[in-house]
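2024-03-11 09:14:02 INFO receiving multi-entity request
2024-03-11 09:14:02 INFO entity count = two
2024-03-11 09:14:03 INFO echoing inputs for audit
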Amino acid sequence: MYAGIDIGGTNIKAIIANREGAILASSKDRTPKTAEEINETIIGLLRKMLEKKGFRISALKSIGIGAAGAIDGKKGIIITSPNIEAWKNYPLAPVIEKKTGVRVFLENDATAAVIGEWWTGHGKKFKNWVMLTLGTGIGGGAVIDNKVYTGQSGSSLEIGHLTIDYKGKQCPCGNRGCFERYASATALVETIKAKLKKRSSSLLMRMKTEALSARMVFEEANKGDMLAREALEEVGFFLGVGLAGLVNIFNPEAIIIGGGLSHAHRYLLPVAKKVVQERALPGLKDNVKYLIIKNEDKTPALGAAKVGIDSLGL
Amino acid sequence: MYAGIDIGGTNIKAIIANREGAILASSKDRTPKTAEEINETIIGLLRKMLEKKGFRISALKSIGIGAAGAIDGKKGIIITSPNIEAWKNYPLAPVIEKKTGVRVFLENDATAAVIGEWWTGHGKKFKNWVMLTLGTGIGGGAVIDNKVYTGQSGSSLEIGHLTIDYKGKQCPCGNRGCFERYASATALVETIKAKLKKRSSSLLMRMKTEALSARMVFEEANKGDMLAREALEEVGFFLGVGLAGLVNIFNPEAIIIGGGLSHAHRYLLPVAKKVVQERALPGLKDNVKYLIIKNEDKTPALGAAKVGIDSLGL
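2024-03-11 09:21:47 INFO inference complete, emitting structure
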């Protein structure tokens, strides 16, 4: 049995898998604030899943953890994390290893999602593909020649920081016009807020502006809210702009979309695909398949488990 | 003995190499207009090089050809070419094969340049790197895990059609704001022309606008022409914008610059590097090495020869 943990800004998701990638148990909990509380939540989730099956934590062969941020995988340290302020050069893997007695391996969450999809999802069908996780930012990765490509530093591909407008919106990363400033869940919320300032016909007007989330926007779109649909279409346009660039550069067989915003694919993808058709090169754009991550809820944790399995094997 | 031919819009360059990549002979000639004249030039160059050594064309084991455009490598057909109008679905490889009795293999010229640099140039030192050829457009490619990556269709990576300004200059490809509209030799000429309209203090004023070339601009810059230097710096800025995106996406060990405009690297690179430092992510930008193609004049032809050698081996 191998554990996989996916630590997001909102939830911590955990699974227990076997060596073949079958999920034996899964559980999740809210992400607490402090590093110590996060550690306890992780261990609590593992204990709960295992006890139901009559096991202790020591029955685990490894624990793989996917977390957002700059990661030193070798040392198991989170250098910085955009979502969890408590983590600054935090040795998450050594700490959990000490508390559990099980080997712990750390990976960037977007890379973990790519590994999960490559292992058990749509990725199995393709040799060269690109994955985007549309969440607070845009993460992602590329599988090249059936191997997950993580670049020279082995961190992750920063697809979200592809420039689509060199004089565009300022990004906290220092660049201007980064893809994720236009096509992430955060961008969707910004877009709807800007629209609400101009018009008041939307159902979303009854919510407090601060409380608006991407999920609300596509729930209202489902109920027929036109302003919500317009905002989603605008984000879909920018998704297409970024994808056209990625199609021209990677010439992939498939693009797989994950992350929370992938739930809004019926609004985003038709627009994005049309933009790719208008903007990417013939020959490159013609045979691309667009797919939604197989199991948005569990794939990143499953990928984290795979990191543990493979690291043990070395 | 293996021949390699690099067909550009201006010159046809030919080399004879051995299996290890040593150049045994080289020659070049102007690129003529018609398909038939191009064929004769190719054969003339081969004959000239071989006769000097006392051989006939039949002594060649293979001829590899790199040509700009959309290529069907399997059939040896040039589908379309931006530089040579005479080529429309032109079966270049079969035609040369028939005329010479030697096996002929066709590859995109930018990919041939990457293969040449990977085989005998700076590329040998790195596992993951990106190459840009700055010419009429921007071509290029990526070497991933020590293999030349050509995408699913095996054509070439269209780095020049990365979007850096989604509402920017119209590109003939259909997209807006393509990288090559801002940082190619063509872009340099457009930039200087725009500057000359506004100001007349440049030495370049004495040339006819139509006759201006990228080479003239950096020759004048070498002589101290401030307007030429300004134009080069502007192109260097955009080179940096594109490179920052490529650094974030590919996380490469090295960026290798080729193509005619690479001769102006002392103007372009300092600006481009500074922009990458401002715009790309820490951890990704820190260890990138910037190199100029080892032998701009012969590497693409050498890469074409390698395509022939490897194709024979299959």
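2024-03-11 09:21:48 INFO post-check: The longest strand of chain A covers residues 23-30.
2024-03-11 09:21:48 INFO post-check: Chain A touches chain B through 48 residues (CB under 8 Å).
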